[in-house]
From TrEMBL:
Species of the source: Neorhodopirellula pilleata
Sequence ranges of Basic and acidic residues compositional bias: 492-509
GO molecular function (one): efflux transmembrane transporter activity
A Pfam family of this chain: OEP
Region spans: Disordered: 465-509
Entry's family note: Belongs to the outer membrane factor (OMF) (TC 1.B.17) family.
Domain of life: Bacteria
Listed name of the protein: Cobalt-zinc-cadmium resistance protein CzcC
Amino acid sequence: MVSYATIRPVWQSCAIVLLVTICVVGCKSPQPCCDPGLPARELACRTGVTMQKTPPCQQVIPPGVVLEDGLSEDEAVLIALSNNSAFQATLAQLGMAHGDAVQANLLMNPQYLIYFPTGAKEGQYTLFAPIESYLLRPSRVKVANREYRRIGETLVQNGLDLARNVRIAYADLAVATQQAQLAQEALQIRGEVFDVTEKRLEDGDISELETITAKVDRLNAKAAAGVQDQTVAITEARLATLIGLTRLPTPLLPLPLQSPTLRMLDEQQLIDQAFACRPDYNAAKWAVAAASQRSRLSRWLFLRIDGVVDVRSDPGGRTGGGLRFDIPIFNRNEGGVIRADWEVNAAMHQRDAIADQIVADVRTSIRTLRQASDNLRVLEQEVAPALVESLDISRKGFADGGTDYLLVLQTTTQYLDAKARILDQKAAYSRALAELERAVGCHLEAGLVDYETLMEVVDVPLAMPKEEPNEGTESDQPDTKPVDAAPEDEDADKHTKDLADLLELDGNH
């Protein structure tokens, strides 16, 4: 029979731990800032299309997409963001980061030690509450929040990369389809020329050799048309894989490539735009913020303090309290501090490398776009009209017997080559535009946006980390002391303060 005197110390200790837990949990501290809709909203703002999540082993056609009337470029991007299995798989990383953020906010469980009364020995009930977990929880939550945002921005960049790849594949399919139509036009022209040569051979105006040459040209055009049809099938399969519609029974019918309609933008303005809202650069800044917070946290990971409540089961019911803590004589996590400092250094260099890559991407894309636009303007406005007129004159002259077949062959070849070059330049323009939009981080036809406007649209609760200096600050230089040399307290405290000031964010959202 268990007496009340025996049970009372247990209830007393449980009441104490409950009171302490309520006080700690009720204190104001950073909370996990998890937003599962972040990638979808940012991609919608940047690309103009709203993605959907597709369950595994399924293929869906998003609302508003009608494949029978032709597949537009934006429809292809929308289908890809909703169906591409590789991209959908990466979205699971955001859920994992959500779990890490929630776990970082949880408190460590207290420990309860019980010695049952045996013989002359009285019972003892001891409660250990890990105080350091309460003290370090805000820093852990800040690290988790920054990691969550880093992963979110990385997923947005993955979506932009997928959109770029889809636009390029779409341009390849569209130009292949138009080149197949051009190959059929070339076959028709060669056939008409061959019919004229047959008629003139019957009239005795030309030799049989010229007839054979025209026949060979027609056969070559027929072979080229067959090859181009296979090219269309190959590019269609490539695009279907990217957009996730590999089991679609009907072929994809892209719309014809159009002439450029986007006005040329200033190169420096595009670079500034890319620095303002490109997701991988933002992810790199969040990585620096997370690494800096981890570096600050690493200076306290050696800390272990337990609050102790001890209850005796003697008739007097004595209750005592105290602390149990590690004495940091041999281990103050010196190696972890050095590693954390170098992780900050690596994150900064990675951010700078992405910044350099942004400049290279924008400059290469905008100059390729200008080159394709200039070439296309010359071909469409100057070369093509002259060749059309020349072809008509030569074909009429050959039919009337006043023009040699070699001249007809030359003008026909020039005309077909010019049309093929126009298609190639249209495709080059579309590819360059896709690369430029990926480099800048937004859909250029919708106009440039700044990062503050983007954040208002996506309604992000956690502010973007501020830019930190790249040179001339002690915080940029990690501690390079030997592993076996413990850092001086003053230097460690100063470095901790530098890291705190480096990327100080409001963690109480």
